[in-house]
Amino acid sequence: MSRDKKVTVGRRDFLRKVGIGTVGAGATLATPLVGPAQADSETNDEKRKARYKESDHVKAFYRVNRYPAKGG
């Protein structure tokens, strides 16, 4: 007669093992992010250009969130 042993893992043991696994995975994932610094590719004119455009979806956002109308 063979009986299967039921292996139980306590909550704290489980959390320790999961924590160790995430630390190891985090170290592996973070490695490619470390590299040489790169300079900006924008020129001074590109850095100073206007980027904000009050398009229809921006106006809808202002209207839905009850921001006061601009200029009027």
Low-confidence stretches: none
Distance between the amino and carboxyl termini: 88 Å
Order of secondary-structure elements: HHH
Q: What fraction of residues sit in β-strands?
A: under 5%
Overall helicity: 40-55%
Shape, per Cα inertia axes:
elongated
* Total number of beta strands: 0
Major β-sheet profile: none
Mean pLDDT figure? 74
Any idea what the radius of gyration is?
28 Å
Q: What structural category arises from helix and sheet content?
A: mainly alpha
**How many domains in all?**
1
* Total of DSSP H or I helical runs spanning 4+ residues: 3
Protein name: Formate dehydrogenase
Region (Disordered): 34-53
Biased composition (Basic and acidic residues): 44-53
InterPro entries: Formate_DH_TAT-contain (IPR014177), TAT_signal (IPR006311), TAT_signal_bac_arc (IPR019546)
